């Protein structure tokens, strides 16, 4: 069955789109009919992502962008307008995590995480929103939060702080941009099958701990985040703004530890 083209004639910018969740989001938006500007700092992986999207019949371009750099963010939006014709959707997905015991975490690592994960969301959202206001046809901004914006893990203090900041920044932007018919929502993934998860879940015991706090009993797939992003970008969510949608296998609802079946 052919997928409905809910995003036909729309233009999307996806940051951190070279792989993982970002690539899955770009693919989901493209399959719904959107043209996609892929943005990342990994030029080789990003070009491979664009090639993959093009092979699927998705119109896609690439612009290198460090989202913590205002000049590069402005260039990203300008390139999108020049190459694709405007900006209707932004998915501010770019993010990093640096793990260390709290008492040993360096100032440099803390600053680096907040620069990308929080400041980067501010810069990209502001630049995209300015373009959307100028166009006068509304739009949808989707930020990438995490269950760890609410549920703290002491070894990733910077990440926790950045995602908590994204939650309230999302609400703030939703209120500020509502008069312009620009909706702003966040997606809060739980444990998703990506390289980031693999970097912190390195053995069976660690995976058992993840599954013990995931009622559905499995990790999520990047495509399951992509489908939520496509919904939030479309008119199917036209009365939703200022929300954080958790895609977490039930983790946020859990207040006890579940036993893991032994294999």
What does this 3D model show about the protein?
- Helix 1 (20-31) crosses helix 8 (222-233), helix 3 (70-84) runs parallel beside helix 4 (107-135) and helix 4 runs parallel beside helix 5.
- 46% of the residues are buried.
- The chain has helices spanning 20-31, 43-55, 70-84, 107-135, 157-177, 195-200, 204-212, 222-233, and strands spanning 11-15, 35-40, 60-64, 89-92, 139-144, 182-189, 244-247.
- The protein is globular and about 55 Å long.
- The protein has a single domain (11-253), classed as 3-Layer(aba) Sandwich (Rossmann fold).
- The protein has 263 residues and is an alpha/beta fold.
- The protein has a 7-stranded parallel beta sheet with strand order 3-2-1-4-5-6-7, with helices on both faces.
Query: At the first level of CATH, what is the class?
Result: Alpha Beta
- The helix count comes to 8
Name given to the CATH architecture: 3-Layer(aba) Sandwich
The gyration radius over C-alpha positions equals: 18 Å
CATH topology: Rossmann fold
Count of spatially separate domains = 1
General form: globular
Helix content: 40-55%
Which spans have pLDDT < 50 for at least 5 consecutive residues? Answer: none
Distance between the termini: 37 Å
Secondary structure category: alpha/beta
Mean pLDDT comes to 95
Fraction of residues in β-strands: 5-15%
Q: In CATH, what is the homologous superfamily?
A: NAD(P)-binding Rossmann-like Domain
Number of strands: 7
How would a textbook summarize the main sheet? 7 strands, parallel
Q: Give the strand order, joined by hyphens, for the main sheet.
A: 3-2-1-4-5-6-7
Order of helices and strands: EHEHEHEHEHEHHHE
């Amino acid at each position: 069955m052919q997928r409905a083209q809910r995003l036909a004639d729309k233009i999307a910018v996806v940051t951190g789109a070279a792989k993982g969740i970002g690539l899955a989001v770009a693919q989901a938006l493209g399959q719904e009919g959107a043209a996609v500007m892929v943005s990342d700092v990994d030029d080789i992986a990003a070009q491979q992502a664009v090639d993959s999207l093009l092979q699927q019949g998705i119109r896609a371009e690439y612009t290198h962008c460090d989202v913590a750099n205002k000049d590069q963010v402005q260039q990203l939006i300008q390139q999108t307008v020049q190459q694709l014709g405007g900006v209707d959707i932004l998915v501010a997905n770019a993010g990093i995590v640096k793990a260390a015991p709290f008492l040993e975490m360096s100032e440099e690592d803390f600053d680096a995480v907040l620069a990308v994960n929080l400041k980067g969301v501010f810069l990209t959202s502001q630049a995209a929103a300015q373009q959307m206001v100028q166009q006068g046809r509304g739009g949808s901004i989707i930020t990438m939060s995490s269950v760890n914006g609410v549920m703290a893990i002491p070894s990733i203090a910077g990440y926790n702080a950045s995602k908590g900041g994204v939650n309230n920044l999302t609400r703030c932007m939703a209120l500020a941009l509502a008069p312009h018919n620009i909706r702003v929502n966040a997606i809060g993934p739980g444990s998703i099958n990506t390289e980031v998860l693999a970097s912190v879940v390195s053995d069976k015991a660690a995976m058992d701990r993840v599954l013990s706090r995931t009622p559905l009993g499995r990790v999520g797939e990047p495509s399951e985040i992509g489908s939520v992003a496509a919904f939030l970008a479309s008119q199917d969510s036209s009365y939703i703004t200022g929300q954080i949608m958790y895609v977490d296998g039930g983790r946020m609802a859990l207040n006890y530890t579940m036993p893991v079946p032994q294999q």
